[in-house]
Each structure stands twice: as structure tokens, then as C-alpha cells.
Records
---
Amino acid sequence: MSDFLHTFFDWSEIRGALPTLLTEGLRNTLLIAVLAILFGLVAGVLLAVLLLSRRRLVRLPARLYVDVFRGLPAIVTVSLIGLGLPAAGVRPFGRNPLGYAVIAVGLISAAYCAEIFRSGIQAVPPGQLQAGRSLGMTYLKTMRLVVVPQGIRNVLPALAGQFIVDIKESSLVYLLGLGVGQRELYFIAQERQAASYNASALVAAGLCYLVITIPLTYLVNWLDRRMREGGGRGARRPAALAQEDGTGTAGAAGELTAGAAVKERA
């Protein structure tokens, strides 16, 4: 029992690891995760719109991307992007491994965000799109002003959950050999564990991950509960989303909601 406690709960090792974990590791873990989810959100919306296209040639590349990056293990994607690209002479970030780490996690996040957005957009009543087109709005304009904003609102809990996944997958970028000042939580803990042959630093890193992910998990549950409780109250009027168009689209958006409601009752 004493060996177990010494291996996993050596307080001197934990105290020695915590300052670096909190000042360097936690900062870089959050930096990688936040940049990756931002990349995933932007790319995911674009991919979702392509996935919903009626043209097969438009859907196919997006579907291929999503299937590949969702099907590959994350560690393989990180290795291919972070190690493979520089070895092939493709060095958009020079010798800075942090940029490759963000792109690798972001590419994975984009594939999952695309499916999240696709399901959210498909949950929007079809009458919204049909009524927008009947008012003379183009397909892309209707998607941008009416359908996509409502779809995003539908999937906020799932997006928060994806951010938690990105935080945990950021631990895989230790493969890229991050330098001092760029190391994330797992890299720092793994280095200390290899030097001391003691897992207490890994336990400390695990506690740091839990401090981030447990509150976010409760946030996801709260958002999901709010969305389910508010689901029967009707969608927000999309008129405010159309105010950026100075040609009267806001009024058209109001007619859009009314027209969609009539079609749904019919």
C-alpha cells in the first residue's frame, strides 16, 4: 500500500510539478483547445452547408473530409499533420510545433463540428428555408440569415461538449516535441514521470484537466436542460438576424416566420 501511495500520491512530486503545470501547461492546453475549437467552428459551418447541398459534387468532398477525420484515430492525425507535413517540406509555421498542434486538433474538431451543425440545421423546420426562397432570398442568403443561426442555437450543448473533447485531445500534441514555454499539461507531467519514475506528476496533471472539464460538463448539462425546457416555446424570431441587410430583409424575415408557421399547420 505504501508503494502505491508513493507512486501515485507523492506530495513532494505533486508540489514540485504544480507550479509548472499551472503557469505553463494549463495556459498552453487552453490556448490549443480554444484556437482549435474556433478553427473547428468556422470550418464546421462551411462543411455543414456543403454537406446539405443538393449537388452531389459539392457534398462529396465535404463528406470525404468528415469521414476521414472522424474515422482516423486522433493520434494518427496529430502525427500526420505535426510530423508528416514538416518532413514533406510543408512548413507554414516554420519550426514552431505549436501551430501544427493547433491545426491538427482543429482539423479533427472541424469534422465533428460539421456533423453537429448539420444535425442542428436539419432540425430547423423545412418551411423556414422554403419560405425564404419564396420571398426571393437566395439559398445561401436564407441559410446565412435564417437557417444557420437557428441551427447553431439548437446545438450549443453539443458544441460545448466538443470543446471538452478538444481539451482532452490537446494532450496528444506531446508527440510533436513542444519546446519549453509551449508544453501542455500532459507533456510536462510525462517529462517529470520519466525523470523520476513516479506517476504523481501525471495525477497532478489529471487533476488540472478535471478542474477544467468537470465545470464544463455541468455547463453542457445545464445548456442541454435549458434547451429542452425552452424547446416548446418556439424558435426566436429571425428578424434580428436579418437587420444587417438594409434592403428590408428584416421585414421579410418576419413574414418568413409567419409563412413557415402557416405551412407547418397546414
Note: The chain has eleven helices and no strands.
---
Amino acid sequence: MTTVKPAAGKAGTFMLGDREVSRMGYGAMQLAGPGVFGPPRDHSAAISVLKEAVASGVNHIDTSDFYGPHVVNKLINEALSPYPAGLTIVTKVGAIRGNDGSWQKAAEPDELRASVEDNLRNLGIDHLEVVNLRIHPDDQAKGNHSVARSFGALAAMREEGLIRHIGISGATLPQVSEARSIAPVVCVQNEYNLAHRDDDELIDSLAEDGIAYVPFFPLGGFNPLQSESLSKVAGRLGASPLQVALAWLLQRSPNILLIPGTSSVAHLHENLAAAALSLPADAVAELDTIGSKAG
């Protein structure tokens, strides 16, 4: 009897800290309401997406307690607890949501501890497998400010056992280097896709050291990827443009872990199908021109 490999498993695996995860994961951000704020439009649909993701071989779920806030973690807890063996839930701290839905910086040590405790409580667990420090865009706009105070606070919580591994999000190469001088970094989560390729050098550097790179907005985020070259390649391959964009990321570097998000089971299956899509060399060459044109 032939064993059918789950969809996500066709992407292969990579180590996230000491956890082996499928390179095709799931980002849970879109399960919250509009603007990642408030409850989902359809509670039962959100639960179904989470259950189907795991059933399809996803063992890496990306979340944060400021998605909602609190909403998405509670959905994950409801849908998946008790959590299956091998499931790695990665969360993020460094922000809180205002009553108006604004994204506000919360990176002081006491604020980070409160965020970690919120994640623990709403996920219903006693430690967090991986926590990413989110660097606020306002700080980045001022230049490469030091991450030592905030990252050091997470490192202290790692020593306490509240956190097993630490990553960093929205970071530059110097900030990643500074963080690594304080404690091991298991992943970097930055914006990266076919059209936004500022991190090419960083990805290659991390790959040499066996560190995962997790692109957010792999499909363009709030401004979905639109490209004539992408559409042409997709047409030739009989795939959707978004599937091709995901497949390109998987082929870009073995340390790239994908976390495309959706609130639809049908869209989830479309994303996961990209794990089985192999892009020929001529397609990759054509797609690579998208990034160079954007730059």
C-alpha cells in the first residue's frame, strides 16, 4: 500500500532550532477580523482552516498574541489543543494593539514579559517554542538602532525556561549580528518575495549558518504581487501566480520556511499545492527579472 505524502510535506524540511519542520507552514494572522483586529467573520471557518492545515502536514504555525489581539491564539488553542506531537508554534512580541487597531511599540523588558505571558496563557502552554522579537518600523526609520535591551530581555526569559528559542523580525543584517552576539538566533522573519528582495545577502549568510529565514508577505501582503512575467510563467506551468511565487521562494534557498496565511480552506489547499511545484530553470530566470526590475 502506497502512503500518500501530506501536501505540506512535499516542500521538504529544515531545522527551526532543534525542531524539524516542513518548509511549508501556515501564518495565522488572517484568522482575525478585518485589519487583523477583532474576531473572525466566521468562527467555525477559522477553526476548520487550522484543523485542515495540520491534517495536511503543516507542523509550523506562525502567530502572535497581538493578532486580534488575543483572538488568533485563542482560536489556535480551541482548534488544536491538546497540541499534536511535532507541532511547532512560533509567536512574536514587541507590539500591542491600540483600541483603534493601531500597532504600537511594546519592546521594553516589562512589556515583553507581559506579552510572553499573554501568549502562554492564550495558547494554553507552559513555554513558547520560538519567540520572534518584532522591531517596530518607527525604530527602523531612525537607522540601525540597537536591539540589545529588548533581545536581552528575551534571552533572560529563555534562561528561565519560558522560551526555548529566539528569533528576530523586521531586522537588518547588523541587528541580526548584534542579536546573535547576545543569544542564539534560530530564525529571521523579514519581508521578502519576488518583488522585494533586499535580503538576498542576509538569506545566503543565514543559510551558511543553518539559520531559518521566514519571509512574511511572501505573496505581497496587503499589496498582492502583480507581474506580467509572473502571470506568463504561471500560465505555462498550469499553476496560479501565487503558487508560482511560493514555489520560487522554496527554490530560492533551502533555509527559507514559508508561512502563507489565509482564512479559507480552499485557499489553504491552493497554497500548499505549491510545495509540489517544481520550476524549470528558464522559469526561474524569468522570475528573477521581477526582483531586478523592482530594485
Note: The chain has a mean pLDDT of 93.
---
Amino acid sequence: MRVAVFGQMWTGGGDMMRNRELKAVIFDMDGVLIDSEPIHFLVEQKLFRQFGLRITEEEQHAYVGVPMKEMWKLIRNRHSLTLSEEQLLAGHKEQLIAEFSTAEPFEAMEGLRELLSEIKNRGLKTAVASSSPRQLIETVLARLRLTPMFDVIVSGEEVKQGKPSPDIFIEAASLLQATAGECIVIEDSCNGVRAAKSAGMECIGFYNPNSGNQDLSGADRVIRHFSEIIGGELQ
């Protein structure tokens, strides 16, 4: 059965729109707008080999949703790397931009365009709040031809603390001129879900197997396809 977009009240059923006014939907990018985690994993594995690091798949998956700067800070301390965080970050960013600029096929997640159209038709605002660098977010949105669909972009470079801290979602809500209670976040990572809930926002966990074994149990609801929140009562 198709469910109304954001129409299911997570705590006790009913129509969320009758219980509060929804103003904005905030999307993570990697693993939500595009199935890009395999590209991230590939680039990271190349860098790990380059630096002589032996990092398990479990450890790598733990960094999903974490800003690159924070990831390299953790790796540098854990594995006693001598290169500076700035050098590690610059190399990582350069390789990511190169990969995302040429990767094929390059497609939005199935059902995303329909969901965005429905959200816009309803007069809601939209944001991307991603731990990725702004240049990478802009590259992805441009290649997907989705730039006009988002009112606000916030990157991990623009907040003091990255996910799982709530800073990025608080900043997105501020730019959207919405309160935390007027926002819903769609996230595919444990760190992202934790950040959204810490910001006081409703959160839809988007299960993406390519994002690793992410614990989405903290989300208000978990979906596997955007069709689960399109149509139905919304009409």
C-alpha cells in the first residue's frame, strides 16, 4: 500500500500535517540523492593503499556520514599517520571531484525526482545537508540536473562540528527559516540519523545496502524506496 508523503505520524498514526505544520525537507546527499557510497569507498580504499593503511570494512563503514576532515583526523590518530590533516584532506577532495566528474552511469536514486516534485508542489522548502565538500555537492547536483530543486545547500565544511553533531541540520533549518519541529530529514547513515534527532527533527532512515550495515533504528521510520512516501493521502 502506498503511503502519503510525510503523512504517517511516526508516533501513533494519523496525518502528520494535521498535527504540525511542515515547512521543509532536508536531504543527505551520498546514499540518498545518489547511490554514491561505492565511489567514496573506492576512492578511500585507493588512498588507504597509497598511505599503507590496513583499514577494515567495518571501520570504513563507521565513517559514513562523517565529514572528511573529521574522518582523516580519526584515521590519523588511530593509525599514526605522519601526513598532516590538510595534506590528507586535499588529496581526498581532489580524487573525489575527479571521480564524481566522470563517473558513469550517474543517476539520481529511483523515485527521487518524483518525490522532489511532490514536495515542491506542496510548497515545501528543500535543502541538502551533506558532510561532503560544497564543491562536490554542487558537482553532483549539477550532473543530476537537480540544482534548481534545492533552496539551500549546507556542507560539512561550513559547520563547526560534523555529524553526528546536529550543527549541519540546525544551520540548514536556520537558512530555510524553519524551526526544528517544522523539518524532516532523510538520512542513510547512523551518524546522520543521530545528528537529525539531536537537532530535534523528525528523521526518515533511508536503507541503502551500499552504505554498509548502518544502524537506522534511531530514525522515526525506515524506508527502502522513495515510493513508500509518495502519493496516497497527499492528493
Note: The beta strands are 24-27, 125-130, 152-155, 183-187, 202-206, 221-223.
---
Amino acid sequence: MSKVIVIGHKSPDTDSIAAAISYSNLKRELGMDAAAYRAGELNKESKFALDYFGVEAPEFIDHVEAGQQVILVDHNESKQCVDGIKDAEVIELVDHHRIGDFETASPIFILFCPVGCVNTIIYNLYKLNNVKPSRAMAGMMLSAIISDTVLFRSPTTTDKDRKAVKELAELAGVNYEEYGMEMLKAGADISDYPAEKLAGNDTKEFESAGKVFTVGQISVMDVEPINAKKADIMAALEKNRAAHNYVASYLMVTNILTEDTYLWFTDGAKDVAEKAFNKNAEDNCVYLPKVMSRKKQVSPQLIKAYAE
């Protein structure tokens, strides 16, 4: 494949999908033969945004070939990358997460910024290069920032994210609050998903002190339909954990209206979960009020607990 692949993480969320689209578009505007790809299935929220702004979904690939030039967006840890990445040639990286085990053979362009969404960074690269995004590109970047910051409810939200949303909403010709709630509602309507899909929803792998675990997240506006499926979801979560020999698997059930999270976990993880959050666990669950961000409020605490 001659084109440069621009791709986000496995189990892609709206930020990862939109980043592949928006950054590949910017690279083409600047003269690079780049194309957006995805390393997993689209979720309902991403589909809503793509349909709303009339944007074609990135093509799915399950691996990259040796020597293929790749730009990574919205992730950098090897366990979250598309298969084959170790033998590919990563030429750029744009991200807003912690720096994991990323390494390259040669110097490359790397841009990290502690903001709520990687599309906030990408939008500012458009501005830096004097490239005005189309309505469709502005809409996708807007959708990503709304998604990752949960319409500014997430503690990861920064003033840069807020500024970007207001400017992008104008370019996209939408009221960001009204559009944002429509999109979040569409994404939260997942009660019809089978247990296996819910168990693996928006899941990322992490490693700490040689131990590999996963943290998935379900964002809803009513936890009861998900609670009704808890036994089946937990069975699927455990099956996947055992199949990959993870030390544990966690699933954040986050209510975006009440801004809290029920952190479910597989058998054997109770002590770590209680240690990580200094809370008592019951029925394979720790209740975390005012917790919405995996990046800032859940994965760092678990990483630390496993390292100690």
C-alpha cells in the first residue's frame, strides 16, 4: 500500500475515528498521500456523526504490512495498536494520552498535549498551517471533542477544548449543545447490544509491572438496562479475560447524566480495585461518584495499584 495509513486505536471511539479522518485530510491538504483507516468496528455514536456530516467511514484493516508507513493518532501504547505495527514504519504520532511503551528506530514527528481530545490538537494544526476545515471536517472534529469531554462534563476538559468546540461549531453550522446531546443520546442507546459486545465496548489494554489488564467503558443515560444484563456481561468479560490471559478485566458503566461510574471487574480483582480507589467493593463492583474519565480517573489508579 503506497498511501500513508492514518489510524487510531483498536476498539475505536469517536475521537479515534474522527482523528484518522481529520488528520489524513490535513496531511492531504499539505501534499501527503494519506488515507484514514480504522482498527475496529464503529460504535453508534461514531456512526451518528459520520451520517450527520455525510462523511465516509474509514476502511477497516486488521493489520499493517511490514515497512508500511503509518501515522498513529489518539494512542501510542503497542497493545492498543493495529496488529503488525512493530514491523511497520511509524512516521508521526499525535496523541493526548500518557506515553506508554512507544519507540521508533528513527526520529519522527511527535505531538502530545494534555487536552481532553486529540482532535483539539489536530484542529490547532489546521490553524497553524492556515488550512480551513470543511464543514464535514469541522463537524467530525467537533463530534470527537464533544464525545471525549462528554460535552464538557469530563474532568479532562480544558479551555483549549472549549475554545475549539465553539469555533468548530460555527464552521460546522450547528448549535454544539443541541447537536452534542443528540449525538451522546445516540451513542448511549446500546441496550440492544449483546452481552459480548457490551463487555468489549471501547476496551483498551494496559500493562503495569508485567501485568496486562483491560478497561472498557459503556456510557449511558440510564444504568438499569445495562444492570439487567450484568450477569451475562460479566460472563463475557471473564471469558475474554481468560482467553487472553489478562490478570483482570474492568468495565466502566458511566452515567453521563449523573456523572458517576460503576466499575465492574472480573473475579480476583477485588483487592486491587479497592486499593486503587480506596473504596469497598461489592458484587464485583466499585462505585465511583464524579468519575467519568478512564484516561485521568481510572487507568492511572489501576496502573499504580498493580505496580505497588
Note: The radius of gyration is 19 Å.
